[in-house]
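Posted in: Structural Biology > Protein-Ligand Complexes

Title: Requesting predicted complex, glycyl-adenosine-5'-phosphate in pocket

I'd be grateful if someone could produce the 3D structure tokens for the following input. Sequence and ligand are given below.
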Amino acid sequence: MAKQDDLFKNVVSHAKEYGYIFPSSEIYDGLSAVYDYAQNGVELKKNIREYWWKSMVQMHENIVGIDAAIFMHPTTWKASGHVDAFNDPLIDNKDSKKRYRADVLVEEFREKINEKIQKDVDKAQAKFGEAFDEKQFRETNPNVVRRQQQIDEITVELTRVQEENDLEGFRQLIIDLGIVCPVSGTANWTEVRQFNLMFGTKLGASADSAMDLYLRPETAQGIFVNFLNVQKTGRMKIPFGIAQTGKAFRNEIVARQFIFRMREFEQMEMQFFVKPGEEMKWYEYWKETRLKWHLSLGLGRKNYRFHDHDKLAHYANAAADIEFDFPFGFKELEGIHSRTDFDLSSHEKYSGKKLQYFDTETNTSYVPYVVETSVGLDRMFLAVFSKSLQEETLEDGSTRTVLRLPSVLAPTKAAVLPLIKRDGLPEVAKQIVEDLKWDFNVAYDEKDAVGRRYRRQDALGTPFCITVDHQTLEDQTVTIRHRDTMEQQRVAIADLRNLINEDVSMRNWLMKMK
Ligand code: GAP
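-- Reply #1 --
Done. Output follows.
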């Protein structure tokens, strides 16, 4: 655990030191769970957004994008169920006065048991090697069987108390499991209460005529209310999708873990409208397609897993998370939900307007079913950033910090460095920057010894360093150093553009999804 904490602390401090993420309004001591993206962070975030947008909108002829407003008519949130049901169950520890999400306390307890099982499995795997049969081990090892049974019982009871909104039962579950507050170490808990997560605000000039509004807690509803507009004006045929990226706001009470859980964050969502009855086929399709998108970034298959929901939201008939191995363990990165016709039907009811699709093949109208993919942009950022940050021991025993960002997402693709600050080398280096900047974000750096500049670019995540030396003046060649291998090649200046492009082009990275 201490190692995990250290790793996470490193991620947070590196993000600040290298201009990726700053606490919001830091000169006033910051604002809890609100963050600003700095000069490099904004580029990484933009590149992730573009990588998502290209794969969703550009690569699918039946998906189009929109950008709906953050403010929406307040009835939207009545129809979507957010006014009545967008709650978190909270519990306080009377001794530490700390507040927790009751469901998270139970889920974390359950995950600890799961980690113990995984440890036993790993140990046995190491002992038996090739001959190891994991399935059989899980079914027969007494410790694993007992722990799995405990997990299953917790899951059943957690699902029950959530579905029945049995708040007293929720508290009892926490007490029965012996869960204590990590700060006070006691089980002196208050009752569990429901807390609505939407931020309220007002629209209008005078206090009496002002209209109560909510800041949107998800971008999805902007898509639902525009479903017919897009379908008609885009002459879209089912199945088709509408994609959107944008800010969402939630008054998260237990907002910890840096940009993992924020109060103001960005979502990248896509609603796929399908014929009723075909939703399961598309649900499976999008689960697989979205996992492929994540895997294309090359962070490693072992860092992802699916988690099928035990408790379904009020609108869903199937739901799964793609979980990622964050520095604090496996947690939700993206949700894939089969939302039935809940949202469109509900908007029909509340607005009195028909939101139906006319199927010209069957001459019938129906309310489409929806499969949604929803990933947090900030969470994607944290996943990519935290997994890329590595400390390496080199052959000579020294260490280097390297941010192995997928080069397609790296804020700066190349840094151009004159070996020394005279003899005409800076001029040549600046000319290279001038030529490359039409295609890539490139930086010029002449300060400090070249070795230190390499280290700095490694820590910034820049995939290439291009060094201009005296030989450059004679033969128009430079050295290009690769961040990950530290290998250096001598190449012609005229070849730089193609060489960098081959490595960073979105086309090449997205091709990996095929
Ligand atoms: N439209 C469906 C929806 O909003 P969700 O599971 O509540 O579903 C989708 O959110 C994704 O948005 C999550 O998987 C996560 O990546 C991101 N997300 C949700 N709440 C967040 C928060 N407070 N801070 C950062 N990201 C968040």
